[in-house]
TrEMBL record, chain A:
Its EC number is 2.3.1.-. PROSITE patterns: KS3_2. This is Act minimal PKS chain-length factor (CLF/KS beta). GO terms for biological process: fatty acid biosynthetic process.
UniProtKB/TrEMBL annotation, chain B:
The lineage of its organism: Bacteria, Bacillati, Actinomycetota, Actinomycetes, Kitasatosporales. This is Act minimal PKS acyl carrier protein. Residues 4-82 form the Carrier domain. Keywords: Phosphopantetheine, Phosphoprotein. GO terms for molecular function: phosphopantetheine binding. It comes from Streptomyces eurocidicus (Streptoverticillium eurocidicus). GO terms for biological process: antibiotic biosynthetic process. InterPro entries: ACP-like_sf (IPR036736), PKS_PP-bd (IPR020806), PP-bd_ACP (IPR009081), Ppantetheine_attach_site (IPR006162).
UniProtKB/TrEMBL annotation, chain C:
Belongs to the thiolase-like superfamily. Beta-ketoacyl-ACP synthases family. SMART domains: PKS_KS (SM00825). InterPro entries: Beta-ketoacyl_synthase, Ketoacyl_synth_AS, Ketoacyl_synth_C, Ketoacyl_synth_N, PKS_Beta-ketoAc_synthase_dom, Thiolase-like. GO terms for biological process: fatty acid elongation. Residues 3-417 form the Ketosynthase family 3 (KS3) domain. Its EC number is 2.3.1.-, 2.3.1.235. This is Act minimal PKS ketosynthase (KS/KS alpha). Keywords: Acyltransferase, Transferase. It is an enzyme of class 2 (transferase). GO terms for molecular function: 3-oxoacyl-[acyl-carrier-protein] synthase activity. SUPFAM superfamilies: Thiolase-like. GO terms for cellular component: cytosol.
Length: 412, 94, 423
């Protein structure tokens, strides 16, 4: 079966626009959490978010796309372009010999929230002004498939494409499905996830989930695996990766390979109260098996890191069961950005690939005291130099989604 | 009834409803540049027509809208009905 | 592992005009229409005021008060269909280990109806921009990020394998099934519950299709409003509904003596990379999806006995699709019967692809091609055999079903009966 390699990637996050800026912030432990400033958040019990700042949509998108896109789709479009550039692919313009074209390229992007800020405005127009004030663009700017569709159109990608929704786990599922699509014969798939819902309604809806931190200090609001963990900080953004058939990459002389998607698995937890165990551990085991790796081969785990004690404990338990107590370095750079829903898994995957590249594992900023019984070797305080060859990335989605991806160094 | 619509107003509406494309020279004289050359598709025109209806009370029928090729044709249609105070063919005045 | 084949062994449907699979099929073979004036809210301020509504009584369906509070309408539809499909398949709980069962649920607008209800509560009927978090339903997060929809299906099934929502707009219903078929084929799971649900008959969704004039303004004749391939068609009729399937690996299904409706032998999806809502006239990408799906099924195009069209009843769709059929099926396009059940039950966005798969499976089972209702005035640009008005009894072994959606998605699926032996 053909290998799926990552030949390009990009990120838009509260700590960086573009791979290197984001990575620099991660290694420096620079967080992007602050009080929401897009509306008056003072009446809400939670006020901190990981907001992207300094993204001027007009600098990244053709003017024609501005009136018809939600902020999340603008991030998706900017990232897709950067990722394709990084991969040395500019569909439609450099389609020379060996270059993928037309049906050779697909898109699989996860969005957990759709174009929510956009749709909030349209709901408001409908109910305060009337149906005829609703924009023609509402029919697609809102729905979960919008990023996939817009990326396909902008770059002329006509291959098998999809949009997956599985809360925070959906982004890794999208990468897994991209690998599946490549293995079934499509040369290249633009994959990842992105989300943003930082309008008043989206904000209130996120709070209704009951897991958002009410802390007021940015450094104390999202403390994955800490004994003081008290929920997460919602963020916005995501990452896009170019998942490509290894032969295709060779054929066209792709400039770089960040790594291989060696394994993927997804599982789902049994209903609450069933007494059956969480299926996270099985997702890890299945992903390892799919990668043809054992726990011993994994150099680092990028954890889901919910920042909610019972969920942190469950994840620690699953990792302990597979790797043994303190059996593998574990980290959660998402402490710097907040949880990004559909975008979260792909951003972690991007960081994992950079860990492979640079031989350094980023730390989990802010977390200070990890309960002893978690048995976790959490990378804290500063990045740890480690010649990592394989990494496991985990994501869980509310209601029971588990997704696990194993990435390995490109030459492994 | 409202003031006639001038080119600047139309330009503002088009930009708000359908965006601006540097390649299509929006700052230049676009009066007779076909909408298709300006990159305005049928959705863009529908969105603009909805805005014109809201601001000028002129309701352009679908089949008429699809026949309009240039900003000048659109301006003439709207202003024709605004001036006349009665609908041109295919136009209703709110 | 060799070639793992995937079969449909159970079906559950909730569609306009009938509460279960049997009533659904009767409606189709009789060519009756179930579109009517919108009753869920006062549609008078809207341009299009007709819809395919489902008469759904959650209590009569066996949902308890807590379930009714917890699950929104679209989720209730999906769970009701899931229960039916499981019973239909005879697959007993525990027969397949939980982690070897997947769920793929399609939907285009997910919890739109509940979102709108909540919006009105929180914004005081739309008057305030700021919403009051104290008035928020605890389920509001699930409406924002609809993980609870596939979760409820997974819980109803006892599935602990991959669970996801496939949300490709109006091809979701085909793509969710296609996704699950891939999981079984590749050996990730042995069984799946897949299908789609949508309940978009709510003001915001009606308004957004009004804005682009995609829905029909034929408000005076609700029963005659959906007219795919007719020269007088002027838009689709929005609808709601759901269909869910039990999919199993063929050898396992055969070993347990499962009833088999059909094999899903081919599936493909492509994007037109052209426009979020517009379609090119030539039908190129849909034709490519059809070609790839037939290829996967290892079938010559002349093997197709029936084409279940997307047939939404918009001017551009039906022309686009006719071109795609000619492009992909060649001369056979003129011989094979093509029909659109949207003429009878409207277009339930993400759900319709699955409801159409159900119709195809039943067409194979009964050897009947459902008709295109309301097709009385031929359109010179749509010049194929669309089975107008009356169902047709004929041998139906191989069916092609297609879908087309916003975002440029074009999907195609091939279903095949297994012949006398397995039926």
């Amino acid at each position: 079966m053909s290998d799926a390699v990552i030949t390009g990637m990009s990120v838009a996050s509260p700590i960086g626009l573009g791979t290197e800026e984001h990575w620099k912030s991660v290694l420096a432990g620079r967080h992007g959490i602050g009080e929401v400033d897009r509306f008056d958040v003072s009446g809400y019990p939670s006020r901190l978010a990981g907001q992207i700042r300094g993204f001027e949509a007009a600098d990244h998108l053709p003017g024609r796309l501005l009136p018809q896109t939600d902020v999340s789709t603008r991030y998706a479009l900017a990232m897709a372009r950067w990722a394709l550039e990084d991969a040395g692919v500019e569909p439609g313009t450099t389609a020379g010999p060996g270059a993928p074209a037309d049906y050779d390229m697909g898109v699989v992007v996860s969005s957990a929230q759709g174009g929510f800020d956009f749709t909030h405005r349209e709901f408001r127009k409908l109910w305060s002004q009337g149906p005829e004030y609703v924009s023609v663009y509402e029919s697609f700017a809102w729905f979960y498939a919008v990023d996939t569709g817009q990326i396909s159109i902008r770059h002329g990608l006509r291959g098998p494409s999809a949009a997956l929704v599985a809360e925070q786990a959906g982004g890794l599922d999208a990468v897994g499905h991209a690998r599946r699509t490549v293995r079934r014969g499509t040369r290249l798939v633009v994959a990842g996830g992105v989300d943003s819902a930082l309008d008043p309604w989206g904000w209130a809806a996120q709070l209704a989930g009951g897991r958002v931190s009410t802390a007021r200090e940015p450094e104390r609001a999202f403390l994955p695996f800490d004994r003081d963990a008290g929920g997460h900080v919602p963020g916005e953004g995501g990452a896009i990766l170019v998942v490509e058939d290894a032969d295709s990459a060779r054929e066209r002389g792709a400039p770089r390979r960040y790594g291989r998607i060696a394994g993927h698995a997804a599982t789902f937890d049994p209903p609450p109260g069933s007494g059956r165990p969480s299926a996270l551990r099985r997702a890890v085991e299945l992903a390892l098996a799919d990668a043809g790796r054992t726990a011993h081969d994994i150099g680092v785990v990028f954890a889901d890191a919910a920042g909610v004690p019972e969920l942190d404990r469950a994840e620690a338990e699953a990792l302990r069961a597979v790797f043994g107590p303190y059996g593998v370095p574990v980290t959660a750079p998402k402490a710097l950005t907040g949880r990004l829903y559909g975008g979260g898994g792909p951003v972690d995957l991007l960081c994992a690939l950079l860990s492979l590249r640079d031989g350094v594992v980023p730390h989990t900023a802010h977390t200070a005291r990890v309960p002893e019984d978690y048995g976790l070797d959490l990378v804290r305080d500063e990045p740890r130099g480690l010649p990592v060859r394989s990494a496991l990335v985990l994501a869980r989605g509310r209601r029971g989604f588990n997704s696990a991806v194993v990435v390995t160094a490109p030459d492994s | 009834m409202t003031e006639p619509m001038d080119m600047n107003t139309l330009r503002r509406i088009l930009v708000a409803c359908a965006g601006e494309d540097e390649a299509a020279a929006p700052a230049g004289d676009i009066l007779d540049v076909p909408f298709t050359d300006l990159g305005y598709d049928s959705l863009a025109l529908m969105e603009s027509a909805a805005r014109i209806k809201q601001e000028f009370g002129v309701d352009i029928a679908d089949d008429v809208l699809t026949e309009l090729e240039t900003p000048r044709a659109l301006l003439d249609l709207v202003n024709g009905s605004v001036r006349a105070g009665r609908p041109a063919e295919g136009v209703r005045v709110a | 592992m060799g070639e793992r084949r995937v079969v449909i062994t159970g079906i559950g449907v909730r569609a306009p005009g009938g509460s279960g699979t049997k009533e659904f099929w009767e409606l189709l073979v009789n060519g009756r229409t179930a579109t009517r004036r919108i009753s869920f809210f006062d549609p008078s301020p809207f341009r299009s005021r007709v819809a395919g509504e489902v008469d759904f009584d959650a209590r009569a369906e066996g949902f308890g008060p807590r379930e009714i509070r917890r699950m929104d309408r679209a989720t209730q539809f999906a769970v009701a269909c899931t229960r039916d499909a499981l019973a239909d398949s005879g697959l007993s709980p525990g027969a397949v280990p939980p982690h070897r069962i997947a769920v793929a649920l399609g939907t285009a607008v997910a919890s739109a109806t509940s979102l709108e209800d909540e919006y009105l509560v929180m914004s005081d009927g739309g008057k305030d921009w700021l919403v009051d978090p104290d008035h928020l339903s605890p389920y509001m997060f699930d409406y924002l990020s609809p993980g609870a929809m596939p979760a409820e299906v997974a819980w109803a099934v006892g599935a602990e394998g991959p669970v996801t929502m496939v949300s490709d707009g109006c091809t979701s219903g085909l793509d969710a099934v296609g996704y699950a078929v891939q999981l079984i084929r590749e050996g990730t799971v042995d069984a799946a519950v897949a299908g789609a649900t949508d309940t978009p008959i709510t003001p915001i969704v009606v308004a957004c299709f009004d804005a682009i004039k995609a829905t029909t303004p034929r408000d005076d004749e609700p029963a005659l409003a959906s007219r795919p391939f007719d020269a007088t068609r002027n838009g689709f009729v929005i609808a709601e509904g759901a269909a869910m399937f039990v999919l199993e690996e063929y050898e396992a299904a055969r070993a347990r003596g499962a009833p088999v409706y059909a094999e899903v032998s081919g599936y493909a999806t492509r994007c037109n990379a052209y426009h979020m809502t517009g379609l090119k006239k030539d039908g190129r990408e849909m034709a490519e999806a059809i070609r790839a799906a037939l290829d996967e099924a290892r079938l010559d195009r002349t093997a197709v006995d029936y084409v279940n069209a997307h047939g939404s009843g918009t001017k551009q769709n039906d022309r686009h699709e006719t071109a795609a059929f000619k492009r992909s099926l060649g001369d056979h396009a003129r011989r094979v019967p093509v029909s659109s059940i949207k003429s009878m039950i409207g277009h339930s966005l993400g759900a319709i692809g699955s409801i159409e798969i159900a119709a195809c499976a039943l067409a194979i089972k009964h050897d009947v091609v459902p008709p295109t209702a309301n097709l009385r005035t031929p359109d010179p640009e749509c010049d194929l055999d669309y089975v107008p008005l009356t169902a047709r009894e004929q041998r139906v072994d191989t069916v092609l079903s297609v879908g087309s959606g916003f975002g440029g998605f074009q999907s195609a699926m091939v279903l095949q009966g297994l012949g006398g032996a397995a039926r």
